[in-house]
């Protein structure tokens, strides 16, 4: 019997989760009991928490060992520098295109015009960086062990890059012993990742069921045009911009590649975590898309931290949406073309440092709002719909990371036939 591939199992899990969540919500509504008090919800919550904890458990060691191992495969600092520059330019290019897509659509659709809302009086309850430079300084950890414990991925990646770069300067037995140790640890982490991935259909089903059982469509009605604008911008980047770039730079079928990466994309959608999805992304990039380990293990962990196409696009649409809402309340407020250009620059810049901050998109948005003189309290408007949009923009983040890995591997001549 032909083995059913992982992406089909994940699709089955998503459908099962939707049906289970819908049934639980309907049953509780008819019985007049809270969803959270049911055994079904407890099961959804328990299974989804275990799955998310497993994903998070492997991320830090997987990032460190795979990144250092990939850098050792470069052989020299000169080649590492060339690959790093090429990766960075691709990442900045895709992020800029995502931002311009969001800027165009939010100005065409204007979802905030005529929205009748009351300005929230309570600010978002998160510690917010006061400046872009504070964001950059937060990217450099004073204690890498504490950064790992706090799941500050960007600090771990910076340390891993420095560790791998200085490993390349070693010679003789020291380098050989340490390289073999790093490679063995990387292999172990990939095997552990395979084990966690095998549980993905069950974990994703529980995540989806939990979301559907507690969320109703009424949450989205008032914000429908905002949600539509964000969704349309994300879809444009996913289905038009990134495929065009893949075809231009590799001459490969972009939609076949995206389908190959679908297990990672489904996982990204259900977990809303680029870093949590990294293990699946690495495995599919190497075994599914045929990207070499030395490229994938360098480009993808880096992309999970600095390449946030979906987050940057979301921030631009959200800030301009808030500006449109505020203009309806305060007619004297206007957003000049120069301020929109400032928003573009800040959206590109702060997306680089977004990964190490809780609720990255919303918190980083505050810096942009402050820069253009908008009340930060407006961020409370989009909390109700942020979870679903976060799931969508995480798919874009992971797709962009994978696409750049493919383009860089093609340029380096390190793409082979897929394994499965």
Task: State the end-to-end distance.
Answer: 16 Å
Main sheet makeup? none
Tell me the CATH superfamily: Sodium:dicarboxylate symporter
Fraction of residues in helix: over 70%
The residue-averaged pLDDT reads: 80
The CATH topology: Proton glutamate symport protein
Order of helices and strands: HHHHHHHHHHHHHHHHHH
Strand content: under 5%
Protein name: Dicarboxylate/amino acid:cation symporter
Pfam families: SDF
Membrane topology: Multi-pass membrane protein
InterPro entries: DAACS, Na-dicarboxylate_symporter, Na-dicarboxylate_symporter_CS, Na:dicarbo_symporter_sf
Describe the model:
It is a single chain. With 420 residues, the protein is an all-alpha fold. It has a single domain, classed as Proton glutamate symport protein, CATH 1.10.3860.10. It is 75% helix and 0% strand. It has helices at residues 6-31, 39-72, 77-109, 132-138, 144-149, 153-167, 172-198, 200-214, 218-221, 224-250, 254-260, 262-271, 278-288, 293-306, 309-329, 337-352, 360-371, 383-412. α2 packs across α8 (200-214), α10 packs antiparallel against α15 (309-329) and α15 packs antiparallel against α16 (337-352). The longest helix is centred in the first third of the chain and has 34 residues, at 39-72. The radius of gyration is 22 Å and the shape is globular. The two termini are 16 Å apart. It is found in: Membrane. Keywords: Glycoprotein, Membrane, Symport, Transmembrane, Transmembrane helix, Transport. One of its GO terms (molecular function) is symporter activity. The chain crosses the membrane at residues 7-24, 50-68, 88-109, 153-171, 192-213, 225-250, 335-357, 363-385.
């Amino acid at each position: 019997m032909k083995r059913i591939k992982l992406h089909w199992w994940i699709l089955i899990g998503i459908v099962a989760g939707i049906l289970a969540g819908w049934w639980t919500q309907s049953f509780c509504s008819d019985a007049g009991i809270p969803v959270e008090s049911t055994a079904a919800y407890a099961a959804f919550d328990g299974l989804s928490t275990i799955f998310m904890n497993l994903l998070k458990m492997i991320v830090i060691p997987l990032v460190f060992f795979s990144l250092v191992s990939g850098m050792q495969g470069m052989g020299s600092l000169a080649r590492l520098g060339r690959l790093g520059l090429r990766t960075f330019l691709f990442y900045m290019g895709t992020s800029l295109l995502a931002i311009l897509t969001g800027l165009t659509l939010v100005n065409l659709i204007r979802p905030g015009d005529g929205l009748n809302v009351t300005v929230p009086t309570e600010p978002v309850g998160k510690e917010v960086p006061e400046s872009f430079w504070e964001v950059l300084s937060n990217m450099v950890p004073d204690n890498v062990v504490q950064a790992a414990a706090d799941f500050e991925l960007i600090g771990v990646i910076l340390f891993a890059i420095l560790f791998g770069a200085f490993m390349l300067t070693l010679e003789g037995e020291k380098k050989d012993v340490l390289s073999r140790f790093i490679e063995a640890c990387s292999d172990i982490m990939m095997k552990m990742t395979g084990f966690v991935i095998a549980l993905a259909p069950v974990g994703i089903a529980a995540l989806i069921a939990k979301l559907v059982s507690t969320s109703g469509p009424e949450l989205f009605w008032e914000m429908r045009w905002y949600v539509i604008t964000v969704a349309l911008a994300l879809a444009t980047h996913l289905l038009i911009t990134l495929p065009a770039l893949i075809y231009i730079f590799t001459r490969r079928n972009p939609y076949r590649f995206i389908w190959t990466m679908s297990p990672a994309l489904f996982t990204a959608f259900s977990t809303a975590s680029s870093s949590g999805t990294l293990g699946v992304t690495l495995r599919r990039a190497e075994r599914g898309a045929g990207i070499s380990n030395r490229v994938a293990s360098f480009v993808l962990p880096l992309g999970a931290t600095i390449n946030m196409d979906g987050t940057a696009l979301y921030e631009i649409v959200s800030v301009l949406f808030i500006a449109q809402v505020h203009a309806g309340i305060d007619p004297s407020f206007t957003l000049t073309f120069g301020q929109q250009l400032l928003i573009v620059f800040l959206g590109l810049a702060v997306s680089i440092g977004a990964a190490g901050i809780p609720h990255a998109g919303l918190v980083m948005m505050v810096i942009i709002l402050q820069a253009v003189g908008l009340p930060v309290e407006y961020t409370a408007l989009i909390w109700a719909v942020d979870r679903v949009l976060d799931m969508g923009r995480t798919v874009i983040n992971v797709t962009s990371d994978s696409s750049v890995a493919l383009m860089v591997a093609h340029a380096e001549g390190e793409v082979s036939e897929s394994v499965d």
